[in-house]
């Protein structure tokens, strides 16, 4: 027969603490799982460094806007398990120089895709120089992805740029840290000013399962390249 007199009795203060912990909101992971689920969280990181004059910047901006109005891109979005993606756009230059151009937006139909495209077109250029820090762009995107108001089945950082990393930490370190966290990095090198930039992106920038590059041989061809890249990005499981 059990002798309850010899068994430890939980102090009142500990009982109160346990009751309080049971009453508190669910931990961060549970709150994260409660977020609306989408097929892809896509951080679009757009080069606004000194080598990108205003004409080139406008071609980039128009290319992204046109891509999200493209029916093939919308079809790829609708073809996912949840029929949606969430994306945001950030301009970047130096290691600590990034500016949000368009906030996280859920894209699931023609109306939301067009609204995102309109927001891209309306967003002013906020950065004009400061070097080229791809590592800074990756590190900044890694701060944004965990705070997205959606839970993505896949998380991708999309880096477009016309030069190699010349500011901040080694881009391979930033890439490797992102990949270890389960994030894929894809690249859109614009090989108009720097010879071999496509190989540089392939060797140093992209990473993660299925990572790829889609080079644009000029700014004028950027629009076609981003359409191909988005379709591949969205369709890949």
Could you walk me through the main structural features you see in this protein, from its secondary elements to its overall organization?
This protein is α/β, with parallel strands linked by helices and 237 residues long. The strands form two sheets. It has a five-stranded mixed sheet, sandwiched between helices. Strands 1-5 form a two-stranded parallel sheet. The radius of gyration is 22 Å and the shape is globular. The protein has a single domain (36-235), classed as 3-Layer(aba) Sandwich (Rossmann fold), CATH 3.40.50.410. The chain starts with 11 loop residues before the first helix and ends with a helix. It has helices at residues 12-23, 28-33, 54-68, 71-78, 110-122, 134-144, 171-180, 197-205, 222-235; strands at 37-38, 41-47, 85-92, 98-107, 151-152, 155-161, 184-189.
